[in-house]
UniProtKB/TrEMBL annotation:
This is Wall-associated receptor kinase galacturonan-binding domain-containing protein. It comes from the Eukaryota. Keywords: Signal. Residues 1-17 form the signal peptide.
Length: 241
């Protein structure tokens, strides 16, 4: 009898699947509005082992969006660019219940809004490191062999630094004139990408300076890792870290 009960419990667990909200975007909402789904919105459902959301907070416009899916999201990212623009994106998944992601979103949106990041202040700190407002014409950049190469007038210098391996993943020329910073933490994949338009700016010093700015303003910790810890997957329990 106990053996039969054990088999039934295993079968029930294997067959368990959530009916997750999916293919739906809620927002944009301004920072003064608590996250909630309007009645009748996001009716689409899809079976999955875990329900997922993507929260995108745009500090330059004081607004946010929440997207629902069944994708196994596992990452946080920060984008900073001219404008100024400052976006913080959080991927989260849980398997406790259908709406466990909604509970998370309400709490996380509130917590992130209270951080009150200033897109203008942070970009003004970063701009002197990555931007040459007087640039006119081509630019010199480093390649992966740390050789100086010439990049076209419609390009920037680019670097992608792997923070787990402590080495460049790529660097050279990149199409696009506007400098920017993109930090990504997917747990096993951790990088900072920088586009800059100063001669030979895609180097270790630029990476170190940008990393320090991100840490100083609380966008990452001292090791370049996420602050929000948005990809924490919960199994059978729900808690905020």
């Amino acid at each position: 009898m106990l053996v039969l009960l054990f088999i039934l419990l295993i079968a029930a667990d294997i067959g368990f699947a959530l009916e997750c909200r999916t293919d739906c975007r809620a927002g944009p909402y301004d920072f003064g509005r608590t996250f909630n789904i309007p009645d009748g919105a996001c009716p689409q459902r899809r079976s999955g082992d875990a329900c997922s959301i993507d929260i995108e907070l745009d500090y330059h416009s004081a607004s946010y969006n929440v997207k629902f899916s069944t994708l196994m999201l596992s990452r946080d990212s920060v984008y900073i660019g001219a404008g100024p623009y400052l976006s913080y994106s959080i991927g989260y998944q849980c398997s406790k219940s259908i709406d466990c992601v909604i509970s998370y979103a309400r709490n996380r949106v509130t917590e992130m809004i209270h951080r009150n990041y200033s897109a203008r202040i942070i970009y003004d700190e970063i701009a002197p490191i990555i931007k040459n407002p007087l640039r006119n014409g081509s630019i010199q950049c480093y390649n992966m062999r740390k050789e100086a190469i010439v990049c076209a007038s419609d390009s920037t210098c680019h670097l992608d630094y792997d923070q787990r391996e402590n080495k460049f993943r790529s660097r050279g020329c990149n199409l696009g004139r506007e400098p920017s910073v993109f930090a990504y933490d997917g747990g096993s994949y951790l990088s900072i990408k920088i586009g800059c338009n100063r001669d030979l700016c895609n180097n270790e010093e630029t990476f170190s300076q940008i990393k320090n700015v991100l840490s100083t303003y609380g966008l990452t910790d001292g090791n370049g890792r996420r602050i929000a810890k948005g990809n924490k997957q919960m199994k059978k329990s729900f808690s905020l870290k």
